[in-house]
Every structure is written in C-alpha cells, then in structure tokens.
Amino acid sequence: MTMIIVIAIAAFLSILIGGLVALRFKDRLHLILGFSAGSVIAVAFFEIIPEAVELGSGKYSVDTILALVGLGFLIYLILDRFIILHSHNDEEGSGYLVQKRGMLGAGSLSVHSFFDGIAIGFAFQVSVAVGVVIAAAVLMHGFSDGINTANLVLKNGGNVRKALRWVFVDALAPVLGIISTLFLTLQESTLGILLALFGGFFLYIGAADLLPESHHRHPATLTTVTTVIGMAVIYGVIRIAGA
Q: What average pLDDT does this structure show over 207-220?
C-alpha cells in the first residue's frame, strides 16, 4: 500500500512538473520526449505484452492476446484522432479545429491519465515488479502529458492560470485511477486481456505520439540516441527486477 501511495504522488508530480516545464522551457523538451518514447515502447514490448500472454495463456491463445494488443492500438488511434485531437506543439492551426482543441484536448488527456492510473493499479495486482515497471513508463510519458496539456490550453487562447488549472486536473487523474483499482480485484485471465489492451495503448503512445513529437522540431541524432537509451534503460530495469 505504501508503494502505491508513493507512486500515486509521483504520477501527480510527473504531470505537474511537465506542465510547469512547458510554460518555462522548450529548447530541451525533444530530448526528454525521445527518452520517454523509447521507455514506453520498451515497456510494451518487454513487459506488458509478455505478461499479458502469460496471464491469458490458461484461457486465451497467443493469437487472441496479440489481436487484443492490435485492438488496443486501434482504439487509441481513434481516440487520438477524433477525441484528443493531438497535434505537434508548434503546429499552426486556425478556425474550428483550433477551437475544438484546448479545453477538449486537455480534458481528454486527463481521461487518458485516469486510465494510466488504472493500468498501474491493475499491474500491481499482477505483481509488485510488473507494477513498478509499468508505473515507471507511466511516469515518463506522464511528464509529456503535462507538457501537452499546458500547450493545448495556451494554443487555444487560454492564459497561464487556466493552463495551470488543467495541468492540475490532469495530474490528479492518475491518482484517482489508482485509487479506483483498490476496490476491484480481477482474475488473471481478465488481467491478461487488460494488459494486452494497455500494451496496444503504450505502443501507440510511444511510436505514434511521443516519437514523432520528439523529432518534429529537432530531427537530430541526439534525439534518436535518447530514444535508444530509453529502451535500453527499461530493458535493463526489467531484467534486473526479474519482472
């Protein structure tokens, strides 16, 4: 319980700090996002998907679990394109599209952060090692969520105070998600299904969101290096933890 409380606080601070950094610094964000992209992709490949296959093996075939990973990817794609309306931070917009972003985008990112908290909570039901690894990935891309939340509000004509208010809402969301899982215990096969879906979510977040974001302004070799380092660090953590 103590560890979950600590992680909930860390998730809150990760998003909050990301929002504050977005309001003050921009020159080095691509390096942080590049590292986060590699970390999230590594967690999906080396931890979430293998764990989903293992948990679901008693009831579902490997093909079914991998199909659910693909379904998770598609679900997040649809949410991203039609609800979250994600755009690169320096992308120019006008008219109706820009007006739909901002409040809707910040609110959608907050919902996404809530599900991140759920992912952490259910991961701890699998094992402490799995929970810690998934929490680490959530913390890393939670930082970028804070950045995107602040930028979406500011680009839509919001002021700094309004941006900070939405960043706070986004930061609180994963805490509520974690708390919600404390009142629900799932069977291993059900956890396997959920982890497969989360694996698809994480692949999309890393490969289709964070990675392009990190290279959008700075298609530099150093950004690629940080992505590789991010994958290597998570792989090493997983091997050491024996998750």
A: 72
